[in-house]
Design brief:
Blueprint lengths: L18 H5 L12 E5 L4 H12 L3 E6 L2 H13 L6 E4 L7 H14 L5 E4 L15 H28 L4 E5 L2 H4 L6 H21 L6 E6 L6 H6 L15 H8 L10 E3 L5
Parallel strand pairs: 1-2, 1-4, 2-3, 4-5, 5-6, 6-7
Helix pairs in contact: 2-3, 4-5, 5-7
The protein binds NADP nicotinamide-adenine-dinucleotide phosphate.
The site of NADP nicotinamide-adenine-dinucleotide phosphate has 27 residues, from helix 2 and helix 8.
Amino acid sequence: MSDNSNQQAAPQSEQPLSHDDIRNFLPAKNCLDGKTILVTGAGDGIGRVAALTYARYGATVLLLGRTSSKLEYVYDEIESFGGKQPAMLPMNLEGATYAEMQQLEGLIHKEVGQLDGLLHNAGMLGQLTPLEMYDVDTFAQVMKVNFTATFMLTQALLPLLKDADNGSVVFTSSSVGTHPRAFWGAYALSKQAVEGMSDIFTQETQNTTNLRFNCINPGGTRTNMRAHAFPGENPMSLKTPEDIMGGYVCLMSDESIGVRGQVVALQPKD
Ligand code: NAP
């Protein structure tokens, strides 16, 4: 936790890390010691591995997700390797209200006392179909989970994040968030909106706070979502979530202080 000096932006004396530095980052043992990091979609896929990895590097991890049994499993895994005691925050982002997110902020403030990192990882694919045929209810659902809830949760947690010494918010984008692609509909549009939101938050905060905002594009990674999007693909040809964790740790660690408003593609050739 910090004093009022946090309200000033950090001096930008050293050259910030390049995207290659972030992709190839080799975390030092305990480099997240003392940090509390909330991960959304922490029960499965990349989010599960990110939560485990943050805990392995010393962070206290707050596990947010919609399926309690999956969160319990991750909780037990962290306990089994002696990580700091995590907390489970069951929340379905599709139906979650802003009031519930503010209550969550109050709960973290009371029970944990700090929040240094927020990884927005939860996401849903929706339909792969032309916009002309896209089901409008599914469109709204995808936009809520991937974008609107991400905005709401960020805003609700800002008081805690701004109070951190060197807070970091990491949004999850996708290649179709940077370059629109036919048939990817609401998913692509939601990721473009996320990239825009990260940029706007950066512009609005960079002169007044140490809090930094960046996007990660994990690239094609062996998860359930990827298998649904590309059913004909050989999953063994893909990197695993474990393979790309250097970048996820880097953007949460103090090594990335000074990195702001970036969209970091962890597999740039994907
Ligand atoms: P995944 O295996 O499908 O995992 C998605 C996670 O999000 C799950 O934990 C899921 O919870 C959670 N989630 C979905 N809807 C939710 C809701 N309404 N409320 C709360 N949590 C919800 O997907 P992934 O591949 O790990 O993707 C993680 C992120 O990376 C996503 O933002 C995705 O867009 C992005 N991404 C992935 C790839 C890739 O190749 N895998 C590429 C580019 C970007 P449940 O398990 O309980 O359903």
